[in-house]
C-alpha cells in the first residue's frame, strides 16, 4: 500500500494553501533543493565536462525514462526523456507518418490540447498539400478511424473536462484499420494507471511538470513500442540519437531502439529536479493512486454540488470515464477562481467558463478537500467573487 | 575595460584544475547555486503555478535572449532562448527554406558540427526527394553559393580547428545569389565579437552551455532578423509561439516577431542558472574578451611550439582567422589528453588526432597558460602519456 501521509510529507507546500493545480504544475519535492545543489556544486562545479560520464548525466534521459515507464506500463528501455512535449508530439507524429507512407491524414479531436494540433499542423503544412489534419469531436473519433487515416493523435485525458478516451479500444480499432497511434499522456502519467504495453500502443508522449512534479519546464518523454523502435526513422535526427555521437561522423545513423529518439544535449539541472520527484514516485503504486484519486474526486463533487448549486459539473460523473481532475462550469468562473486563489485554494480557469481542479493523492487528502469546499461555499454563497478586482483577466497558465 | 580578475573570482573552479574546456561546457558561476535555490524555494515552492507570471518565468526566454543578443550584435527583441541547439537548427533551416520556396538545396560544409548536418538531413528527407543537402569543403563554400541554393547553413567557428568563416562576406555573397543564411554561433557567442545586425544575417542559432557558462543542457537560442521575423512561418509551431497561447484556440496563429520561435514550456530551472551566468557576461565587453583571448592563444601557441615539438598546430596561425580555441594534432592525442586531464589540465580530444583547448578570458589568465604548458611539456618530453591506462578510449564529450 502506498503511504500517502508519507508522500505528502515529502512536498514543500506553502502554509495555508490547498493546491488543486498539480495538473498544471506539480509542487516542489522537499529533497529537490539539496539534490540540485549537490548536482551544481559537486557535479557541474567539480567534475565540469567529465560529469557527462562520471556523474552519469549522459544516461539520465533513459534512466528517468525507465522510472516513468513503470507508471505508464511501458517496457524497460522504451521511454526516453528530453525536449518539450510539443517537440515530442512532432517527433512522434512525424515518425508515425513515416511508418504509414501511403496515407496522408492525421486524425485528432477538438478536445486535444491545442499545441498538439499546432505541432501536427506545422508538420503537415511543411509536408505539402496532400496532407490533412482532420479534427473531429471527441465522440466522433471512433467513427472517423478509417483506412484513409495514417496516424491517430489523441490526448487520453481531456485537459478541460477530464473526460477520458478508451485507449485500449481505440488503439485496437486503429490497428484494425492500419492506423498508427500517438497517445499524449500529459494528463495521464501519474494521474491514472496507463498500460501502454497492454494496450499495444505505438507511440506515446507526455510531460513531467504536471502530476509527475518535475518542476517548471521539466523535460518531456516519448515512448516507442519496442516492436517499432528499430524501424522508426526519427524526424528530428540529432546527434545524441546517433549510433555513435562522439564519432562525429558526417552521416546520421540512428542509435539503437529508444536512444534514437534523443535529439540534443539533455537539460541536466531540470533532470536532477525531476529525479527528486521520481524518488517519491518510486514509493507509489498507480492503482493505489487511482483508488485514492477517485475517493477525493467523488467527495469533492458531492460536497460542491451540495453547497454550490451555481456550479455545473463539466467532468464525467462516472469516475471510470474521467482522469484525476474535476471541472465545473460557471459563467463568472474566472472571477470565482481569482477569489478562490486569494483565499489559498489554487485551481485554474480555462476559457470560456471552466473552473478546473486537479487531484493529486501524493499530497492532497480528504481534509484538504473539506477545507477547500468550505472556502468555495463561502465565496459562492456570498458572491465574494463579484468584485471588479477579480473580474479583470490576466494571463494565467 | 572588462575587469577579468573580477570575473574570474565569480566562477567556482576546482582547486588545482586549469580548465581549457569551456568551449565544451563552461564552469559554474558562484552565484548559480544560491540563485537556483531561491528559484526553487521561493518561486516554485511558494508561488507554484503563479510563478509563471509573478516570478516572470514566462518572460525569461526573451529576457535572456536580449542579454545574449548584446554579445552577438542582435537588435533587442530579435533573440529568444529555448529547446536545444539541434532543435533550433531544424527550426531555422525549415523557416529559411520556407522563405525560399522555389529552391531545394541546403548548402553546408564538412567542417560543420555533425548534428547540424543530421538535423538538416532529417528535415530534407521528410520533405522529399527533390531536396538536397549539399556538403562541400569549408574552402569551397563561397564557390558553391549559386542561385540553385535555398539556404546556406554554416557554423562560423569550426568546432575542431577553430577556423572561422567570414560571416559578413559569405552573407553578402549569399544575398547576392538570393540565398537565405543560417549561422550557427555555438563556438562564437561569448568567444568572439559577432555582429549579426552589421552582417545583415538572416537566422542564427547557438547554445549557452559553452562560452556562455549556462550549465549542462542549458537552453539554445535563435535569432531572426527583424526584417524577416513577421514573414517567418515557424515549422515547429508550438503553443508558446502562438499569438495568444492562453486562449487555447484550435488554430495556430504565429505570435509577433521573435515570440513565434518559441515552442513549448521553457526550462525555468536551467534558465535561472543561465541568468546567473549572464550576470557575469553583463560586466564584459566582447572587444575586451577578444583582445584578451588573442593574447592567451598567442602565448599558448608560442609556448607549446617551443616546448612540445611533437604537436602540430591545427588551428589557423593568424588570430583573425580563428575563434577562441587552439587545436594541435598529435597521433597519440587521445592518450596525451588523458595524461593532461590526470594532471589537472582539462582540454578535450576530437577524433582522429585533435587535442583541443578553449580559451575563456572570463576565468583563464596568463598564469594558467604558463602552468598548463609546463605540465604539457613534462608529459610530452617524458612520454608520460605512453601508458596502457591512458590509451584506453572511453566515451568523452
TrEMBL record, chains A, B:
Catalytic reaction annotation: 3-hydroxy-L-kynurenine + H2O = 3-hydroxyanthranilate + L-alanine + H(+); L-kynurenine + H2O = anthranilate + L-alanine + H(+)
Coiled-coil regions, chain positions: none
Pathway assigned in UniProt: Amino-acid degradation; L-kynurenine degradation; L-alanine and anthranilate from L-kynurenine: step 1/1; Cofactor biosynthesis; NAD(+) biosynthesis; quinolinate from L-kynurenine: step 2/3
Binding residues annotated for pyridoxal 5'-phosphate, in chain numbering: 85-86, 113-116, 155, 184, 187, 209, 239, 265
GO molecular function annotation: kynureninase activity
EC number: 3.7.1.3
Modified residues (N6-(pyridoxal phosphate)lysine): 210
Cofactor(s), names only, from the UniProt record: pyridoxal 5'-phosphate
EC class (word): hydrolase
Role according to the record: Catalyzes the cleavage of L-kynurenine (L-Kyn) and L-3-hydroxykynurenine (L-3OHKyn) into anthranilic acid (AA) and 3-hydroxyanthranilic acid (3-OHAA), respectively.
Assembly and binders: Homodimer.
Cross-referenced HAMAP family: Kynureninase
NCBIfam families: kynureninase
Family that this chain belongs to: Belongs to the kynureninase family.
PANTHER family linked to this entry: KYNURENINASE
Protein name: Kynureninase
